[in-house]
Amino acid sequence: MVTAHLVVAASEDAERQGVFTLDGFPFWIVYLAAFCLVMVRAGATYWLGRGVARGTVRTRAAELLTGDRATRVIDRIHRWGPPAVTFSFFTVGIQTVVNLAAGYLRMPFGRYLVALTFGSLIWAAIWTTVGTAVVWGAVLLFLEQPAVLAALAVLAAGLTVWLLLRRRSRHRTAAPQPDEV
C-alpha cells in the first residue's frame, strides 16, 4: 500500500524534525520568517489603503468622510483602531480589510505600527504552532482517511452556510418592516 507507506514516512519525518519546523529549520527561524512575512504583507495593505485615500481626494467618497459625523467616527477609529488592528490577526480574511481601512482612514502610522507589530507576533505564533499542526494533521488524515477529511470539509462548509443564513434571518427580523414605521 502506497498510502500506508506515505503515512509512515510522514510520521517518521515529523518525529525527526518536530511538528513545528519547516523542512528541518528550527522553530525560531520559521517564526521569524512568518513574522516578517505578515509585517510586510499587512504593512503593504495599510500603505495601499493610504494610496487609495490619496487617489480619491476629489471624489464623493472623500466628501462623505469630511462631515461632522464621519470626522467623529474617524477620530474614534484613530483612538480605538489600534486594538482592532491587533485583534484582527486572530481572524482569517478580516485582517486584510482592517489593515486596508486603517490606511484608508489615515490611522497615524506610529499607532498603526505598534498595533501591527503585536498583531504580527500573535499571527506568527498561531500559524507556526497551531497552523502547522493542523496542516500536518490534514495531510496525514488525507493520506490515511481521505473520506473523513472530505466529510469534515463538507461539515465545516455546511456549518458556515447555516451560521450565515441564521445571521441573515436575524437581521431581517430585527429590521422594522415598512408597514411598522
Automatic annotation (TrEMBL):
<feature type="transmembrane region" description="Helical">
    <location>
        <begin position="28"/>
        <end position="48"/>
    </location>
</feature>
<feature type="transmembrane region" description="Helical">
    <location>
        <begin position="112"/>
        <end position="141"/>
    </location>
</feature>
<keyword id="KW-1003">Cell membrane</keyword>
<dbReference type="InterPro" id="IPR032816">
    <property type="entry name" value="VTT_dom"/>
</dbReference>
<dbReference type="GO" id="GO:0005886">
    <property type="term" value="C:plasma membrane"/>
</dbReference>
<keyword id="KW-1133">Transmembrane helix</keyword>
<dbReference type="Pfam" id="PF09335">
    <property type="entry name" value="VTT_dom"/>
</dbReference>
<dbReference type="InterPro" id="IPR051311">
    <property type="entry name" value="DedA_domain"/>
</dbReference>
<comment type="similarity">
    <text>Belongs to the DedA family.</text>
</comment>
<keyword id="KW-0472">Membrane</keyword>
<keyword id="KW-0812">Transmembrane</keyword>
<feature type="domain" description="VTT">
    <location>
        <begin position="25"/>
        <end position="132"/>
    </location>
</feature>
<protein>
    <recommendedName>
        <fullName>VTT domain-containing protein</fullName>
    </recommendedName>
</protein>
<feature type="transmembrane region" description="Helical">
    <location>
        <begin position="147"/>
        <end position="165"/>
    </location>
</feature>
